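FAQ: What does the model actually see?

It sees only this:
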Amino acid sequence: MFGDSPLDRRTLLRGAATVGGGTLLGVASTPSPAQAAPTVYTRADWGARPPKSPATVLDQAPDHIVVHHTASANTTDYSLGAAFALSRSIQNHHMDSNGWTDTGQQLTISRGGHLMEGRNRGLSAIQAGDHVVGAHTANHNSHTIGIENEGIYMTANPTAALWEKLVETCAWLCDVYGLSPSAIVGHRDYNATACPGDVLYARLPELRNEVAAMLNLAQTRYATPRASGMPGPRHTFDHGPAVGPADTVR
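And it is asked to produce this:
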């Protein structure tokens, strides 16, 4: 089990060895410095509503990073203002249509490459190496952190700006939480859904290896992911099951 602090977890990550000729976590020849945190626009920056209740924060690290798509339009407005409007729209949908206490995901990346805090207490939890419980992956919210990527990626690729920010964000989270890049997964790995879209999901091996390179870790050969065969989103912000019977937080 990882140690009590982000530093302890990073030390374990970088000191991991190989077993049976296969890389477990990827070993760096020398420890790399802590991954710099990307710029994160806070809830105050994008004008979040107050949550119905404070988010639950667990004194533990999540064990997986779940990649989602927002199932919203592939807009060509890459401005910061559009990114902030996206966060407000997601929060309104999650609170008013879904009846949740707040935005479901912990982090959101716009097509312009802007990274925003999602659920309340989310950024402070990450900075402390803790986990704020969200509502993004049914029956697995207690141990996973979710990143919503603006757009729908069934047949289209994310923008270069979004992709670069996703790599940077995942590297930061892996570093803070002491996670291997192999802990980066898609929503469909847990639930019956097409999320994060066939194209983005197929690029998860590439994402893991780009994150490994940022962390000075060995890269890994991954099997090529297959299409889900699931239907795409039915409406805006429909990326599949987000809460389930095992989830006590909404």
